Amino acid sequence: MTPLLMADLTVFTLSVLVGFEVISKVPATLHTPLMSGANAIHGIVLIGVMLLALTVVDGGGYLLLGVAAFFGAANVAGGYAVTDRMLGMFRSRP
Amino acid sequence: MTAFDTTVHLVYLACATLFVAGLHLMNAPATARRGNRLSAAGMLVAIVVTIAVLVEDGGLTAGAVLVLTIGALAGGVAGLVAAQRVRMTAMPQLVSLFNAVGGGAAALIALGDRATGAQAAVTGALDVVIGALTFSGSLIAAGKLAGRVPGRPIVVPGGRILSVLLAVAAAGLAVLGGTGRGTLALAGVAGCALALGVLLTLPIGGADMPVVISLLNACTGTAVAMAGFVLGSTPLIIAGALVGAAGAILTKLMADAMNRSIPAIIAGGYGSGDQVTVAPVPGTAGVRAISAEDAGIQLGYAGKVVIVPGYGLAAAQAQHEVVALAQALTEHGVDVSYAIHPVAGRMPGHMNVLLAEANAPYQQLKDLDESNPAFPGTDVALVVGANDVTNPAARRPGNAVSGMPILDVDKARSVIVIKRSLGHGYAGIDNELYQDPKTAMLFADAKVALTSLLAAVQAYAG
Question: A71 and B356 in contact by Cβ < 8 A?
């Protein structure tokens, strides 16, 4: 196992634990926005797609890149927008 | 490490911090929106800094820039339009769709990556399997929720064996891919995983969809983390792991609320989907029907009313009507609250979103643990299209809902149930609550019934 993989594994494990800790405190009322907001966070896959663009060489690669960019951007933009719209409805009324 | 690399890493670290802080702020309705915006700001910064990385690297071809820009712009616009247009009742299918494209993008990254070596082979194959499986599984789940795929469990003949074969084939191809056959073998892995996603989701009934969406969400998070391993990108690993954890916790909560084990849900075959046109079953003796006028007067005279909204309310899109009724009762001096079972609606907490959309004050929204002690002091429990979650049979062993946490509606002084017929819920058994002498049934569509109840209350209130 390379030191790099070791470091990545450490980061992964600690992040899972942080996730458990932070999310277990969210009340049931907010579970749908939470899921939608978490969904938007995995839109970070768009960054991976951008990095992938550096290695693209052939036509198939370009096709893959375009579809992946479309998917990733739809995930991140739509996810945050729809969560914000939902949360805008959660307001207390006097 | 150059100064540029150091800066990039520090900025990514700051973005990860913003994600965690954003999720943390989601623990209260008052700060949740700020939390989401903080998380979005983190994402924006991460994207900007990645553009800087691409520019600094200088290795982008003009074609790649063009394809990346057009793809991302089109995807962004499509996502924003969908987010603006979606109706709140259709939220679960949209979340499922966004989940699908996220998983798809993660799988495509591993397919497109040219990295070689044992490490990239293992995490790359995992990325393709989880990502592709999530992609097709989420699409089927969204289709079931939208009614484009039948909600009932669809059992494919020989599906179990086929699933095992596909899994073995995917593993075999992945090993082959590791020994240098590269992209073609990985494409085979993706094909197997896509088919597997369909096969695994089809037999799961509509009632279990909340759990499935949550589970698939966890899978996408994991796929994105795997993509992070492939690319050696820490922000992807952190964000993916956070989402994986969120999905796992929500899945567990949902499964507990339905008294179902996660393996049993994945095995499928339970949860009959949306039964909206079931004829009244035999044995209606002992069931007392009530008119909307009488029910309205009963509500108007009550001191304390608890409304129990269920899937029937969501299906009839009657959230505005129920809130209007609650408001009229509140103005009339009645103490009104909503008792919300964790699986009401189609997604964890979906009912809360529907009621929030209709402007219900969230102080009135009570969860299961808060509601149950209040029922003995409640004059009228108004059940709107909730069946299994109010069935007292759950307290006894030996039936389909045994052990499921329920709302103790039968402990209220009187109960009014709005329902289209005496048809069964997902569990497919009679609800003993309906035979209870203190229960009155108002047979009608939720929207129609609530409108007439409101009229009756207003007429009574003068």
Answer: no
Same domain, residue pair B78 and B124: no
Examine residue A12 and state whether it is found in any structural domain, yes or no. Answer: no
| pLDDT higher than threshold 50 for residue B230 | yes
* Predicted confidence (pLDDT) per residue in B394-423, tens digit: 888 877 778 888 999 999 999 999 998 887
Full residue range of the structural domain in which residue A70 is found: 28-88
Q: Which residue did the predictor score with more confidence, A47 or B29?
A: A47
Indicate whether B239 and B322 sit together in one domain. Answer: no
The DSSP 8-state label assigned to residue B181 in this structure reads I
Nearest CA-CA distance, residue B256 and chain A, Å: 13
Distance from CA of B280 to the nearest CA of A (A): 34
Q: Residue A14, Cα to own-chain centre: how many angstroms?
A: 17
The conformation of residue B375, written as its DSSP 8-state character, comes to G
Contact B82 A78 (CB under 8 A): yes
- Residues of chain B with Cβ-Cβ distance to A3 below 8 Å are none
Is B216 in the same domain as B157? Answer: yes
Burial (CB < 10 A; 0-12, 13-18, 19+), residue B3, is: exposed
Radius of gyration of chain B, Cα coordinates, nearest whole angstrom: 25
The separation between CA B43 and the C-alpha centre of its own chain, rounded to angstroms, equals: 23
Question: Chain B neighbours among A 58-87 (CB < 8 Å)?
Answer: 61-62, 64-87
Distance of alpha carbon B406 from alpha carbon A22, whole angstroms:
27
Q: Do B19 and B157 sit in the same domain of this protein? A: no
Sequential DSSP letters for B282-340: S--TT--B--HHHHHHHHHH-SEEEEEE-HHHHHHT-HHHHHHHHHHHHHTT-EEEEEE
Q: Are residues B254 and B352 in the same domain?
A: no
- Residue B84 confidence (pLDDT): 95
Q: Does B432 reside within a domain?
A: yes
- Per the structure, the count of domains in chain A is 1
What pLDDT was estimated at residue B280? 45
- Tally of structural domains, chain B: 3
Q: Does residue B281 have a pLDDT over 70?
A: no
CA-nearest of B378, B417, B108, B145 to B289 is B417
Contact check, Cβ <8 Å, B36/A43? no
Q: CB A80 to CB B43 under 8 A?
A: yes
- Give a yes or no: residue A51 inside a domain: yes
Q: CB-hemisphere CA count at 13 Å for A48? A: 42
Residues B377 and B434 in one domain: yes
Residues B313 and B447 in one domain: yes
Task: Tell me: do B336 and B456 sit in the same domain.
Answer: yes
* Residue numbers of the domain that contains B256: 105-274
pLDDT tens figures, B317-352: 899 999 999 999 999 999 999 999 887 777 778 898
Minimum CA–CA partner of B252 in chain A: A24
Residue B373: give its domain's CATH number: 3.40.50.1220
Considering only CB atoms, A39 lies closest to which of B53, B99, B356, namely B99
- Tell whether A15 lies on the interface with B, counting CB pairs under 8 A: yes
Per the domain annotation, does A71 fall within a domain? yes
Put simply, the answer to whether B75 touches A32 (Cβ < 8 Å) is: no
